[in-house]
Amino acid sequence: MFFALDKNNRRLFFKHPLLGSFLYIIMSLMLLQSCKKDDDKKLSEPNFTPQFLYAGYSYGSNDFKTNNRRAIVIVNDSIIKLSPNIRAEAQAVYGKGKDVFVAGCRLYGAENRRIVSWKNGSIRHLSDAQAYNNATAIYEDQGKVYVAGTSYETLLNRVGPFQSLWVDGERRVRQGMLDFSSINAITTYKGNYFLAGKFAQAASIWHNNTTRTIRKAASNAAYIHATEADTIVLGYGPKNSSVDELIVWKNSKIIFSYPLQERIQHVFAYMEGKDYYFVTTSATKAGNFNAKVYKNRTLLYQLAPDKICKPVGIQVFQGNVYVLSNILDKGRSTPTLWKNGKAQTLYSADKNIYLNHFYISEIETGA
Q1: pTM of the predicted protein model
Q2: What are the structural domains of the chain?
Q3: Percentage of the chain exceeding pLDDT 70
């Protein structure tokens, strides 16, 4: 009696010695071929690495509030000048694969601003030039580029703000003439856009030319995620006359709230799985900012409590919580990236760089 082992180490018995030896050889070859296919599959799978994108501007004087700005986008640690010879500002960034999408403004004269977008450095003009124009968000899906912004226009002899969405340069949303309004976030589902922000100081969402207020003033929506069944929105609103609360809405109904012992000036938010992340800004009596990071109902940490720290975004990537901020001192900015509460200075104050937004994408680096 002879036996051989299969790939699961089970014994196969054979009465004829030549038959057993022959089958043993065949099975060994089949096992080697199977292992080779597994190895080939592993070798052929692409590798992905994180790509850190930052949008902002460089300034020529020692004051980040100056109008003398040059738009920049930073890919990992490489600074790309979007407007080396014209005054401009990059205000939002998004990445997919090797493509980098940026929204911002070109500056004209003392105050006028024209909303523009860049794709891999190529500029597209979206609005006329008016004072106080701002780009507020950018997104890409299925080859279409979505840009949101506030554009000031004349209606009935009055100049006022319009909340706008451009898709591949064509305006799809134009709603306005009410102050304290902005579109803060964009997402899509099956070619349909979903927007989140505030309209007349009240948290609102836009979808298919319809605007819906989901919280009374003063409130704001900072993040939106859409599926076939649900629309999830993260933001904040008043708990009572004294304090605000962090809020999550599902299909315009509150499913999560967490009251804070302070008034919120601004909030950025992100959702990862079933967890909600917020970075909030509130003012102190000394004129500084309290910048705090929350996960659901847990305060994770406070950012630079002894400094003027202004957060501009939050994202969770590969299990790590990233927050981008500018630390301000005597008119200068120190862009700082926080990873799980630990600060990393991106550029020192003498580099004269201010960052408005960031996004972490994945880029394929080959097999």
Answers
A1: 0.87
A2: 2-44 (no CATH), 49-366 (2.130.10)
A3: 86
